[in-house]
Amino acid sequence: MIVRKLRLKRGWSQEQLSELAGLSVRTIQRIERGGNAGLESLNALAAVFEVDISLLQPEETMTTPKSNDSVLADDAKITEEAITPEEEQVIQRVKELKAFYSHVINYVAVMALLLVINLMVTPDYFWVVWPMLGWGIGLVSHGLSAFEVVNLFGPEWEKKQIEKRLGRKL
Prior knowledge:
Layout: H1 2-10, H2 14-21, H3 25-32, H4 39-49, H5 53-56, H6 70-75, H7 85-121, H8 129-146, H9 155-166
Helix pairs in contact: 2-3, 7-8
């Protein structure tokens, strides 16, 4: 979690961090999810972030900086519980929006390819409209959900379902 917050604070992608630290993207992902990190990996990350290695070790919480460096002073305040519930919600929201935008890009790319195939193979029949409509309905539904215009299965629905299954109020 600390690694993710430090990475996001600097505006780096996981790929950029992996290049800077000389680690694989999978290693960065595993560490950000709370997996164990080897000493070499922690040393590489500490060097990239310009922080003391003890800041990155989950079993230790650092409360005071070991240097006058301003970057270290800011980062030394970060603990294992550094990502607040509010930050976690925002991160989740951004992931949902990213998934929607990826969906839009996939839709446009596939539909453009199908349009080219349609025009080359059967220019007299415009069959590409059917997959456009079908997938388009799904895309619109995804967009309405991602932008919380219509959220049929939102937090209220989840809460009701949990209470229903528990047989009591939360």
